Recover the amino acids of this structure.
């Protein structure tokens, strides 16, 4: 029986710096407690991370026969994904670059 399970969220259209603020709140917490924290988080990244955690719990229970009550967030880290580059027209024929940052989130659950 495996003791860890992993779930990934790729190309999330929120800057990694903003997602890390929410990820730091659930690192090391029990899975049920982390779900509660994410459900009441005001930040935009709270909803995608809650869905990712739900998916990871489902994977652990269905695919690896783990007990949902014994799971905790052993690792969660946010990496920067490729940046989408756009241009905004400005005065006198100039243009400025707009960088739309994206994130890759990796969540690892383990048995306590």
């Amino acid at each position: 029986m495996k003791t860890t399970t992993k779930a990934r969220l790729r190309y999330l259209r929120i800057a990694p710096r903003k997602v890390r603020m929410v990820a730091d709140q659930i690192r090391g917490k029990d899975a049920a407690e982390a779900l509660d924290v994410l459900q009441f988080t005001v930040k935009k990244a709270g909803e995608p991370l809650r869905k990712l955690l739900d998916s990871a719990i489902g994977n652990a229970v269905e695919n690896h026969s783990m007990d949902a009550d014994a799971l905790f967030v052993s690792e969660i880290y946010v990496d920067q994904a490729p940046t989408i580059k756009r241009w905004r027209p400005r005065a006198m024929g100039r243009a400025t670059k707009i960088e739309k940052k994206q994130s890759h989130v990796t969540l690892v659950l383990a048995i306590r």
In short: The radius of gyration is 17 Å. The longest strand covers residues 71-89.
